[in-house]
Specification:
138 residues; alpha+beta; five-stranded antiparallel beta sheet; 3 helices
């Protein structure tokens, strides 16, 4: 049984939960960050499609990952680090348009624990981020 309940569904499931750290910056470069503990089912239902879309994105693609519209000039990024049990962390920079950003950020805040501002600057994922594990079928 997991020590903590899933941040999304609130249930305690057998085994360990994944940890999902999310951060974004407002117009004044103030950082907002959250940590979620997520079970496999909620990770698949709520977040995996966004991560799959990001993995398949072309480097110069400025489409919103939520609606598919053009986010060039009106974009908002969410930086995620996913810790799956017994695997190396995976980092993502998810791009959304200004209209979809609040909706997506609400999902990343569901049941999440707010984290203190560490005073870090904006950066994307590390260039050596490993591929997804087989648990999520990515």
């Amino acid at each position: 049984m997991a020590l903590f309940p899933c941040s999304v569904c609130g249930q305690r499931k057998p085994g360990k939960l994944a940890a999902l750290y999310n951060a974004w910056f407002d117009g004044q470069q103030n950082r907002t960050a959250y940590r979620q503990r997520v079970c496999l089912e909620c990770l698949q239902a709520s977040f995996v499609e966004l991560f799959k879309k990001e993995l398949g994105r072309e480097t110069d693609d400025h489409a919103c990952l939520h609606c598919g519209g053009n986010a060039n000039g009106n974009s908002d990024a969410v930086y995620c680090t996913l810790y799956l049990p017994k695997e190396e962390p995976r980092e993502f920079a998810l791009l959304f348009c200004g209209e979809c950003s609040p909706v997506v950020k609400d999902a990343f805040k569901t049941g999440a624990e707010p984290l203190a501002d560490r005073g870090v600057s904006v950066r994307g994922p590390s260039p050596t981020a490993p591929q997804w594990g087989s648990a999520l079928g990515l």
